[in-house]
Amino acid sequence: MTRMLIVGPPGSGKGTQAARISERLGIVAISTGDIFRANVKAETPLGVEAKQYMDAGDYVPDSVTNRMVRSRLQEPDVQDGFLLDGYPRTIAQVEELDDILASTDQQLDAVLQLTADDDELVSRLLGRAAEDGRTDDTEEVIRHRLNLYHEKTEVVVAKYAERGIVAKVDGIGPVDDVTERIMAVLKDAQ
Ligand code: ADP
Questions:
Q1: What percent of the chain is modeled with pLDDT above 90?
Q2: Which atom of ligand 1 is found nearest the CA of 10?
Q3: Integer angstrom CA distances of residue 79 from 15, 103, 105, 131
Q4: In the chain, where does DSSP find H-type helix?
Q5: Options 3, 14, 72, 181, the catalytic residue
Q6: pTM recorded for the entire structure
Q7: Which of 9, 46, 68, 128 has the fewest CB atoms within 10 Å around its CB?
């Protein structure tokens, strides 16, 4: 049974690696970004609300995000473990997740931190923008998302580091190599 988070700046490859870890470990990957994008596409009330923040590269308000994650973590498929991708990103979200897990006597096993420097991230994200045209992948919005990560999400990692559960992995290099590095640190952490 594994309950994990994957944390990293935009463009660090979180989503790609989350899908691979989820397959290898047989746990469900939950990406808050994907859930928001699906809601935007389907024009649900949640999507309509989230879109304005996402397009500007801002975080969707904690109250909205927390409610969505709380409800997702009550579904039966996550009772045997999960990998959260892109949540928590703020201290308020850390507190919410602590509360959700405590209410069912669960705790996190590991926080995987993927690292890459800003210049590499900007060039990856601009490349992705050219490929699949995400509306939040313009250079100005990318820089803003990176700044938000430094401002709001690095403290989240620090908080988990105090608990001694952070495993840091270099996200630069071929995707397969990064996956192998991740699997190796997870094995060591057990
Ligand atoms: P990235 O990590 O590249 O920014 P994601 O797909 O993880 O991409 O997220 C896309 C957008 O969805 C974010 O910029 C933000 O607007 C919103 N979002 C995703 N997760 C959260 C969260 N935990 N809290 C607030 N907003 C979020």
A1: 88
A2: 3
A3: 21, 13, 12, 36
A4: 14-25, 32-41, 45-56, 62-72, 91-102, 118-132, 139-148, 154-162, 175-189
A5: 14
A6: 0.94
A7: 128
